[in-house]
């Protein structure tokens, strides 16, 4: 198993792909081949960690940390993944709850796995240099990465977030760490943050900082995300011998690409549908087959406010653009619809969903009946609604119970630095 750049024939080991983040030629790393699995090997596994070790092993076969994988999974993927059934009469619907980690969004899977693998790689390779994790966030990644790397020896963390574009509780999670974590509010949008991170990686002056990326462009984040699709599809398949179809709230396309990996490996996954907010780059591409990044529009589902989804590069590497446009399915849900959906799910089903998850519910409820009746659907629930209480509580007129992990963080003091979106400003801070 090697990892190849989407831009050339460059091949690297998984350690290099994880520590490099992006390839030196500007491409993103993808596995050189997608391992094919025998479903029977996974049928007997009910334990998520055991399942994950088996799932991830082929990607690490010739890695210096292959013997550490069990440890890595047990220490990083040590929180619940819940596939809960939603009672809808004759329709078969469930919600894949990915928000039971320390920062209450699915970003915990990737961030914690990345932190553990990087620590293991440093140990096994005898690297004692300091590394700087540089990460741009539209809200949830930064908190998850800061939490995962906080006080991890050998690592500094610099988190960039768009000022005023994240929820108050998200901002608290980004700025409450101190110690080895520096939080920076950028006067701009997520795309500006992402742009600054990319530019910093290309700066020769940054060589000594040993910069590492923890964005969803890092393949080390996508692999543990592929695991929960494999696992949840198997849970359903074991009982019903049928595939699961997913609706995935989508921004930078990392979570969606992870689902494609699991499907390609042979797990019983049917359709993969993206729900987006009013940022329509993907929708427009499906209509025109032309990829045209847009400026970002701020929406209520702010973690999906991405006008230029980076992981599209990985899709283009795997498919030609015409057939890709034909095979993808995506629907846009605007702010008004998000609000209505949150209200309806609460009123009709007592489900409280975050604004991102609401886009998946909206897409599902709008499907024609036969799509809903004859297929099993899993709506991917990407964050806990208590992270977005400023949006959700006024709509449902109810106070949302805060999960323990989140309430612990909210009690900590917070601090951050504000900068204009200019590389010199960022470099001043890092250097
Ligand atoms: C990051 C995020 C998304 C979008 O995921 P991508 O991998 O960027 O497509 C959706 N919902 C929430 C809550 C998120 O934090």
Q: Biggest β-sheet: count, sense, barrel? A: 6 strands, mixed
Task: Give average pLDDT, whole number.
Answer: 94
Which structural class best describes the helix and strand composition?
Answer: alpha/beta
CA radius of gyration is 20 Å
Q: What is the number of strand segments?
A: 14
**Shape type:** globular
**Which second-level CATH architecture of the domain at 69-104 and 220-403 applies?**
3-Layer(aba) Sandwich
With strands numbered from the N-terminus, the spatial order across the biggest sheet is: 4-5-13-10-11-12
Bound molecules: pyridoxal-5'-phosphate
Strand content: 15-25%
**Quick one: CATH class of the domain at 69-104 and 220-403?**
Alpha Beta
CATH topology label of the domain at 69-104 and 220-403: Rossmann fold
Instruction: Point out poorly predicted stretches.
Output: none
Helix residue percentage: 40-55%
What is the end-to-end distance? Answer: 36 Å
What is the count of DSSP helices, taking H or I runs of 4+ residues?
A: 19
Account of the 3D structure:
This protein has 431 residues and is of the alpha/beta class. It has a domain at 69-104 and 220-403: Rossmann fold (3-Layer(aba) Sandwich). Helix content is 44%, strand content 17%. α9 (219-240) crosses α10 (254-265). The structure holds pyridoxal-5'-phosphate.
């Amino acid at each position: 198993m090697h990892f190849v750049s989407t831009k050339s024939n460059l091949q690297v080991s998984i350690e290099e792909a994880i520590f490099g983040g992006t390839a030196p030629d500007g491409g993103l790393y993808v596995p050189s081949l997608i391992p094919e699995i025998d479903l029977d090997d996974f049928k007997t596994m009910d334990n998520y960690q055991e399942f994950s070790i088996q799932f991830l092993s082929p990607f690490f076969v010739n890695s210096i940390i292959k013997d550490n994988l069990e440890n890595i999974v047990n220490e990083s993927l040590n929180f619940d993944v819940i596939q809960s059934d939603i009672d809808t009469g004759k329709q078969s619907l469930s919600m894949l709850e990915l928000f039971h980690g320390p920062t209450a969004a699915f970003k915990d899977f990737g961030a914690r796995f990345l932190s553990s693998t990087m620590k293991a790689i440093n140990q096994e390779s005898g690297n004692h240099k300091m590394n700087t994790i540089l990460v741009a966030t539209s809200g949830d990644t930064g908190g998850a990465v800061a939490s995962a790397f906080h006080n991890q020896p050998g690592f500094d963390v610099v988190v960039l977030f768009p000022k005023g574009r994240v929820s108050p509780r998200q901002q608290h999670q980004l700025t409450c760490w101190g110690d080895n974590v520096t939080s920076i509010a950028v006067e701009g949008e997520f795309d500006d943050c992402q742009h600054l991170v990319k530019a910093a990686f290309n700066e020769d002056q940054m060589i000594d900082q040993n910069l590492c990326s923890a964005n969803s462009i890092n393949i080390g984040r996508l692999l543990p995300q592929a695991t929960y699709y494999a696992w949840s599809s198997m849970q359903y398949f074991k009982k019903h011998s049928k595939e699961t179809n997913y609706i995935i709230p989508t921004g930078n396309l990392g979570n969606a690409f992870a689902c494609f990996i699991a499907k390609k490996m042979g797990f019983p996954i049917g359709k993969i549908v993206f729900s987006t907010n009013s940022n329509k780059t993907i929708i427009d591409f499906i209509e025109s087959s032309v990829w045209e990044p847009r400026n970002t529009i701020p929406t209520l589902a702010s973690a999906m406010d991405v006008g230029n989804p980076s992981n599209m590069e990985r899709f283009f590497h795997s498919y030609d653009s015409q057939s890709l446009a034909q095979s993808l399915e995506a629907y846009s849900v605007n702010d008004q619809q998000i609000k209505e959906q949150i209200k309806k799910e609460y009123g009709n089903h007592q489900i409280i969903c975050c604004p991102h998850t609401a886009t998946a519910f909206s897409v599902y409820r709008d499907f024609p009946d036969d799509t809903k009746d004859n297929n099993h659907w899993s709506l991917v629930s990407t964050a806990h609604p208590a992270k977005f209480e400023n949006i959700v509580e006024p709509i449902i007129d109810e106070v949302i119970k805060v999960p323990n992990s989140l309430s612990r963080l909210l009690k900590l003091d917070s601090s951050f630095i504000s900068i204009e979106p200019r590389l010199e400003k960022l470099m001043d801070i890092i250097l």
